[in-house]
Structures are given as C-alpha cells and as structure tokens.
Write a structure and sequence with these properties.
The complex is a heterodimer of chains A (429) and B (413). Chain A has 429 residues and is α+β, with helices and mostly antiparallel strands. Chain A has 19 helices and 20 strands. The longest helix of chain A is centred in the C-terminal third of the chain and has 11 residues. Chain A is elongated, with a radius of gyration of 30 Å. Chain A starts with 23 loop residues before the first helix and ends with a helix. In chain B, helix 4 runs antiparallel to helix 12 and helix 8 packs parallel to helix 12. Classes of the chains: A alpha+beta (429), B mainly alpha (413).
C-alpha cells in the first residue's frame, strides 16, 4: 500500500488512484485538528447542501466534548486519511438545518434509484474525491457504494484498522454508482425543494423501467414520483404497473392530478385502471377529466371485464372506403400521436360500418391515387363488443392478427383490440 | 349494507394468502413433532396452552401485517433503515442459521414420512430438494402461491385422522379450557417447547414480506387483519387435532416418549390404515411446504436487508447472491440428512437456542418500529396495543430464554 499522508497537498490535486479514495466509513471518526495542531474532536457526520453545490461536502459535524460543532468546507486546510487540519477556528455549534443532506443520517442505509442501472439500490457507503479548490481541501461525493465490498467496510468500521479493512476488501470487485446517476427519493415535497431533489432524470427512463422502479419502492415514495413527474410519462409508466398497484397509486393522488394522468393513458388502459378503483373515487377522477377522454373512458367502463369491449382501444384511424391512399395519408397526418403503435388504417362506409383494413406498409408502396379498397388485406374479420374475451384470444391466434376491429350490434366500428393488449391480459392470466 | 358486506368478502379473498401461508408453514415438521410428543406423553393435558399460543401469535403477527401494509416494506428493510447495517447483519446471520436448521429438520420430515412408505431417504430427499428448487426457480410467483395455497387443504388430513381414532372428545374439550400446571420439569419443558415452535422468528419476516408482495395497502388492512387472525386460529386448530390424535392413539394406551413425528404416524396404524396414511401424508405435505418456503423467505429477507438484488423473476446473473443463498440452503439442508449418523436431535436443540437468541431481538425491534410515527403515521400502536405487545414480548422472551437454558442443558448431556 502506498503512503497516503501528504497527497492532498498536491497543487490542484485531482488524484484518482482508486484505492486511496476516502470512503465515508473512513471519514467518520477522523480526527480534526485546529491551527496549532490540537485535537478538537472527531468527525461524526458530513452534510451536503445540494442547493449550493450538488456534490461538495459543505459541512462536517464534529463531535468534541458534549456538543457537536459545525466545520464549513472553506475552513479546512487539508484532509487526509490521518486527519483534518483547519485553517480557521471560528466554529459554530451544530444546529439542525433543513437544507442539509446528512450522509450518515439521510443517505446511508436508504434506498435510492440508480438511474443508469435502472434499479433501486440501498446505499452502504459513499466514496469521496479530495480536491484543492480555492486554497481549501474539499471533499466531493464521487460514488455511492453498494454490494459486498462496502458491506465489509461498514461491518469492520471502527473495529479493525483502516489499512486492514482496505486489504480485506481488495479482492472483492467494487460495485458503485456515480453520484450523477443517483436519484434520491423524498416523499415530502417541501423537503424535496430544500434539498434540490428533482425527478427529471426518471422522466428519461423507459416507462417500463420506471414502472419496475416504482413497484419496488414503498407506497409514499411511489406516489410522490408519479405525482411529481410529467403526466405523460407518469401515464406511460402507470400503464405498465400491476393493476392493483395502479389503483392504490391513483387513489392516493389528488383527483385533479389523477385525472390529468388518466387522460394521458390510452382509453382502454385508463378504463381498466379506473375499473379497479372504488366507484366513488373513479367517479371523482372522471369528473375532473376533459369531456372527450371522459366520454371515451365512460363508454369503455360500461363493458364487463370479460367482454371484447373492455379490451379495445377507441383511438384509431378510420377512412371512408371510397377514399384513396392520399386520403389515408392525410388522415394519418392528423393523428401523429397515434403513429408509434399504429399498424393499419381502418375503412368504414358512410354509416360507420366496418369495411376492411389496410396495413400501413401497403400505403407506402401504393401510388397516391390508388383506391384504398384495392389495398384491403385478408377477409373481413371483426368481433362484437359484447363477445367473450376467450373468443377474442382464439381469433387472434387463429388468424395471426396484429389488430382486431370491434363493432357494435349494428356493425358500426367502435374500437380496435391490438396484440399488445392481448399479451398483457394473457400474462396477467 | 349487503353491498358493503359483499365488497368486504371480495376484498377478503384478494388479501387471502399471507396469513394462511405463514400459519401453515408454522405447522412444519418440528411443530408436528412437538405436538405429537405432547399428545403421546401427556394426553389431553397440554391442550389448554393452545388458546394463549393463538393469542400471542395474533398479537405479534398483527403488527407485522400492519407494518407491511402501511410502509410497503419488509421487516428486514425496516430494520436496516432504522437500526443500520451492523444490527441488520447480525439479525440476518442468525436468521440464516436458524432457518438453515429449520430447513434441515423439514427435509428430515420428508425423509421420515416417506420411509413409512418404505421409500429410502437417499431417493426421497434428493428428489424433494430438486423439486423444491425447480418449483421456485422455474415457476412464476403466482403459480407457486397457488400451489402452496392448494397444499393448505392437505392439513385437513390431521383432522380426519384424529376423527378416525375416536379419541375422548369430552376430555379434549374440557382440557382445552382448563389450565393444568405440574411441577414436572419435562412437562414444563414441553409447554415452553410448544410456544417456541409456534412463534418462530422467520414468521415475522415471512408474513410482512408476503403482505408487501401481495400489494396489500392501508385500505385493505382491515380485511388483511381478519385473514391473519383466521390463519392463526386455523394453525392452532390443526395443532389441536394433532395432539388429540396422539393422545387418543398413544397416550390412552400407555403414555410414552416418541423420537420423531414419523413414529407418531406409526403408532396410529392399529386404528386403521387410513388414520396412519393421513397422518403420514400430512407430515410429508407440511415438511415439503416448509422446505420450499423457508429457503426462499430467508434468501429474500437477507438480500433485501443487505441490499442485494433479489427475486425469482430476476436471472441468476442479475441476482447471484439471492440464488446462491437459496440453493445452498436447500442443498446443504437436504445434504446433511443423507450423512449417516448425523446428530439431528442435537441440531434441532440448536435451533431452539438460536431461535431463543433471535426472537427477543426481532420482537423488540418490531415493537420499536411499529411505534415510529414517521413510519406508521396514524397506524402506530395505541397505548393499549403497546401494553399488550410489550406484555406478550416479555412473556415470549421469558419463555424463550427458559427454553434456551433447557436446550443447552440437554446439549451438554
């Protein structure tokens, strides 16, 4: 092992020998010396003030005698693994401050989200980096440690000498997450503001990954995430969550917020989610919704759970059967938000009766003036909205469908069931 | 009104599972042996302990169900968050050790029950271990839960076999409500053993995790509590029939000690092939049940408390420690049963000692946790609940420590 003392005095020392980075477990208990080299006390905890700087250790809480003292970062001349030397002795007694994120109290042993690894992890330890900034020695949080190696450190912290612990841990591969990729979850909105915690990193995750993360957290944390992220993202993530959990999340949200999210969901999924709720709550949410999505969802809620109507989506693109490819393209241009999952255009007559389906691929290669009727694929297959869903599964399987139009008693088109709806229903089995 | 009742019943069925499963696993091989021994040696006398046991069970389990429903976190998670890593590590180490010996005792139960049907243990134990492993690793959680809930029905076999023996029901009922204490050290040891085997540390972890896994929330808590109580009562009822069966079949013809639960089944033979078959089948079912649940529950608790990835829906590469722990518990637990001359009785005494160290810790943590306002909000213990909980904890700790003393004495012999 290389010598450690003195390294921090390197000019502008960015020093990256991984083995020698101090850990929080080593920082705790470090002796603090005043200007004349007298020992004041030992480090008890360290705190960030994220509103000022997201990664700099802003204060050190030093236990000396009866009370704790606060040492500010700019009062420190040097930090190394043998102790902290001050350059300014005007210390204040510690007092609780809501803008502080205390590493030992608020971070260690808690769950955070690893945005890069897309999972929930539990913090065992924190790795710092020592830097010289404006004449003082500053600790910056570099990584959060999880896994066996950091558990070992925690277990032996203060029991074995530091060097022994380092030697013991060296054969185990480190498992850590860069601080920039860590997202702390704080249910209290006021505290979230004071600690400058945002969930914007979570919004960039794939909705399915976000759903997995949400499912792993406790109810308070999960509600706080869904309530504070963008409604569209929340809707997508919520659609992927287990139906029972969907219900308990929606129930916990304020009706207006819940309505905002439900509006963003596909109508069939929105109806499924609302069907899980108590009537009173779902009614409250529906009341808050805009007229158009509300009508669609209400219509779907009428169907029993085992009927084709409850599986169908009421968002689709339909064109008159006498139209041309150009008409179809125009219709698609008006519905950009549906394109991601759409695979066919449906044909109807003037009375709204279902007349056939044109796969999107065919529209590409046909001349713009070609009549749509000439592009219709396969026989005319559809189900009644009141059909039992077992029958729907059979039809999907038998004809290898991606879409199945749903019609009412008079044969008028009222929705489409897509293969992904079928997959999620079958998986819940 | 009717609608509300119907809704209540509907919710009850959605929350069914955790309480029942815990109670059923509680009647595992070790439990069956203790109850059989009680009935064989003292007849109907020890039956009165069952009601207080049920009460203690309900008091402790209710707190776990409440914590699970309100916080959405397992007991090991909460211990970790509130008491830190060292404490968690200590508790988890003890939990792995006790559960390992429990797993072992249950593979011994599998071996013993199948030997009654002349299946040698070197055939039955490896097959059982492989089955248990595959069931969880290759099955989905829902299918596993369904299989286990189905297996609960087989506990009825004890009821039937007790009826077939035609015991003295009148005496059974009167003994159930009439406490009898004797200054016979063996009798007192047995009573303490009955409490010790009924209230084990793993249950607290398992039940809370199951409540969380099931997604039971505050609003369903009322129904979940009923389920927990029903589970506890069912468990005690089954224990009642085991004791009665052994009292009728063995004690009535000459009180004696039995060495294992399989011997109790053997003693039922003169009362007809069915009584014997059902008792043996019940033992096999219970042992398999516990041998499946305990390793899984241990692996979950440990990984969650220490922050390793866990879950049967994760791959081996994603959650290596979870799968290693799970596999080792099964392989070693089943493996030692096959070692000739393995000191099994001594190991089972060791379980009692380890349980005795772990249970007080877990119970104290539980009462502390359930009183934390920032965790439980309006669901913290009321003053009355606290009085009852602390009383139960003190009684349990006293009994457990007594059991530790007795087990240590027996181990020295």
């Amino acid at each position: 092992m290389r010598g450690i003392s003195g390294l921090s005095r390197l000019p502008d020392g960015l020093w990256d020998a991984r083995e020698e980075l101090p850990y929080f477990t080593e920082l705790v208990g470090l002796k603090v010396y005043d200007l004349r080299g007298r020992r004041i006390g030992r480090v008890a905890d360290a705190a960030l003030v994220p509103l000022m700087d997201p990664s700099r250790v802003d204060r050190y809480l030093v236990g000396g005698g009866w009370a704790w003292l606060t040492v500010r970062y700019d009062q420190i001349r040097s930090i190394d693994l043998d102790g902290i030397h001050l350059q300014d002795e005007r210390l204040t007694p510690y007092h609780e401050d809501e803008y502080m994120l205390r590493i030992g109290r608020d971070l260690l042993d808690q769950q955070i989200v690893d945005v890069d690894g897309r999972k929930v992890v539990r913090v065992n330890d924190v790795t710092f980096q020592i830097r010289q900034e404006e004449g003082c020695a500053v600790l910056r949080v570099l990584e959060v440690d999880v896994g066996l190696r950091s558990i070992l450190r925690r277990l032996f912290q203060g029991v074995l000498p530091r060097r022994w612990i380092r030697r013991l841990q060296s054969p185990i591969a480190p498992n850590s997450i860069r601080w920039e990729h860590c997202n702390i979850i704080e249910p209290d909105p006021l505290r979230r503001l004071r600690l400058n915690i945002s969930y914007s990193m979570l919004e960039k995750l794939h909705p399915a990954d976000l759903a997995d993360i949400v499912e792993e957290l406790g109810p308070e944390e999960r509600e706080s995430i869904i309530a504070s992220i963008d409604s569209e993202v929340a809707a997508e993530a919520l659609s992927e969550v287990d139906p029972k959990m969907q219900a308990s999340i929606l129930e916990a949200l304020e009706a207006a917020k819940a309505a905002e999210i439900v509006e963003e969901m596909a109508p069939d999924e929105a109806a499924d989610a609302l069907a899980e709720l108590e009537e009173e709550t779902s009614e409250e949410i529906l009341e808050e919704m805009d007229a158009e999505p509300k009508a669609e969802v209400r219509e779907l809620l009428e169907f029993a759970e085992d009927q084709a109507g409850s599986l169908m989506n009421t968002e689709y693109v339909a064109v008159h059967e006498d139209g041309t490819v150009r008409d179809a393209i125009e219709a698609l241009q008006g519905n950009e938000d549906l394109l991601e999952t759409l695979s066919a255009v449906l044909l109807v007559d003037s009375g709204g009766a279902y007349k056939g389906m044109v796969p999107l691929g065919r529209l590409f290669i046909a001349p713009p003036g070609a009549p749509l009727r000439s592009l219709v694929s396969g026989p005319l297959i559809s189900v009644k909205a009141t059909e039992h869903r077992e029958r729907v599964f059979e039809i999907f399987d038998k004809y290898n469908l991606l879409n199945l139009p749903v019609v009412d008693e008079e044969g008028r088109l009222c929705g489409v069931i897509t293969a992904d709806d079928i997959i999620s229903v079958l998986r819940q089995g | 009104m009717l609608k509300r009742i119907r809704r209540q019943i509907a919710i009850f069925f959605t929350v069914i599972g955790p309480g029942f499963m815990t109670a059923m696993v509680d009647n595992e091989a070790g439990g069956i042996f203790t109850y059989s021994q009680a009935g064989a040696k003292y007849g109907y006398l020890p039956l009165w302990t069952l009601a207080p046991i049920a009460l203690l069970l309900v008091i402790t389990q209710e707190m776990n169900a409440r914590m699970g429903a309100v916080t959405g976190k397992g007991l090991s998670d909460l211990i970790r968050e509130e008491f830190g890593l060292r404490v968690t590590f200590l508790v988890m180490t003890l939990l792995v050790l006790t559960n390992f010996t429990n797993v072992m005792a249950n593979f011994a139960g599998v071996a013993g029950s199948l030997e009654l049907f002349s299946v040698p243990r070197w055939v039955s134990v490896p097959i059982a271990a492989a089955l248990v492993w595959v069931l969880v690793v290759k099955g989905t959680y829902h299918s596993v839960e369904k299989i286990f809930l189905g297996a609960c029905v087989f506990y009825a076999s004890y009821v039937v076999s007790a009826v077939l023996i035609k015991p003295d029901w009148q005496q059974a009922v009167s003994s159930s409500v009439q406490p009898v204490l004797m200054l016979d050290p063996d009798y007192i040891t047995l009573l303490i053993g009955m409490v010790g085997t009924s209230i084990a540390p793993w249950m607290q972890f398992y039940l809370q995790a199951a409540v969380v896994e099931k997604g039971i929330s505050e609003r369903e808590y009322a129904e979940s509590r009923i389920e927990v109580i029903v589970g506890c009562v069912t468990m005690v009822v089954i224990a009642f029939f085991i004791i009665v069966a052994c009292a009728g079949a063995i004690w009535a013809h000459g009180p004696r000690d039995i060495e294992d639960a399989a011997q109790a089944a053997q003693a039922l033979k003169p009362f007809g092939e069915y009584a014997f078959l059902l008792f043996a089948a019940g033992l096999f079912n219970a042992s398999m049940f516990a041998a499946s649940i305990l390793p899984l529950s241990t692996a979950y608790s440990v990984c969650e408390g220490l922050g390793f990835e866990a879950g049967v829906n994760k791959s081996f590469r994603e959650a290596p420690i979870f799968y290693w722990l799970y596999t080792l518990l099964i392989v070693l637990g089943a493996g030692v049963i096959l070692i000739p001359g393995f000191p099994l009785v001594r190991m089972i005494l060791l379980v009692q000692v380890l349980n005795g160290v772990l249970l007080p810790l877990v119970l104290i943590f539980m009462v502390l946790l359930v009183n934390k306002k920032e965790l439980m909000g309006r669901w913290v213990n009321t003053r009355f609940q606290n009085a009852v909980a602390w009383l139960a904890v003190v009684i349990l700790i006293g009994l457990t420590l007594a059991l530790v003393g007795i087990s240590l004495r027996d181990m020295m012999r």
